[in-house]
Design brief:
- The protein is of the alpha+beta class.
- It contains 3 helices and 10 strands; from the N terminus they run βαββββββαβββα.
- It has an 8-stranded mixed β-sheet with strand order 2-3-4-1-7-10-9-8. Strands 5-6 form a two-stranded antiparallel sheet.
- Strand 3 and strand 4 form a beta hairpin.
- The protein starts with a strand and ends in a 5-residue tail after the last helix.
Length: 146
């Protein structure tokens, strides 16, 4: 289940407003970085779209530090990512990451946790185990409209 996906935009506030109109959603300021917005669709899945300034990208952290935002030209990173619910355990995910020599670590995102799973150590997917997805859905419930 994809819970949210992100995208870059030049005029983040305008783009967030347009998607809120399209999905009959709710726009909220999103504070991981300046000029970012979250559009909650208000459905049973906690679907959302994160809108980031196009010149900002995510860079991997380490086992102790979550990813961070940067504005460095020529780097292979982007803010585009998805939060996806999975049926595998944390241990299974970490075993896959270790086998592939890809960075993976668990971090808090407000009221829920995610596993940052860095595909080829350049592209992040936020993986949510069933308990993480349940916490995510508790947050999304306040934006539910139907």
């Amino acid at each position: 289940m994809i819970h949210h996906i992100s995208m870059p935009a030049e005029d983040t506030k305008k783009v967030a407003g347009i998607f809120a109109e399209i999905f009959d959603g709710t726009v909220v300021d999103f504070k991981p970085t300046e000029n970012a917005y979250m559009v909650w669709f208000g459905d049973d899945h906690g679907s959302a779209l994160e809108i980031y300034p196009k010149d900002i990208h995510l860079v991997p952290g380490d086992k102790e530090n979550a990813c961070s935002f940067a504005s460095e030209k020529g780097k292979p990173y982007t803010t585009v990512h998805a939060a996806i619910g999975i049926s595998k355990s944390r241990e299974e995910i970490y075993a896959i990451a270790e086998r592939e020599n890809w960075h993976a670590a668990e971090f808090k995102r407000g009221s829920f946790n995610v596993i940052e799973f860095w595909v080829e150590n350049t592209f992040m997917i936020e993986l949510l185990t069933s308990d993480m997805a349940a916490d995510y859905l508790k947050l999304a419930e306040k934006y539910k409209k139907y």
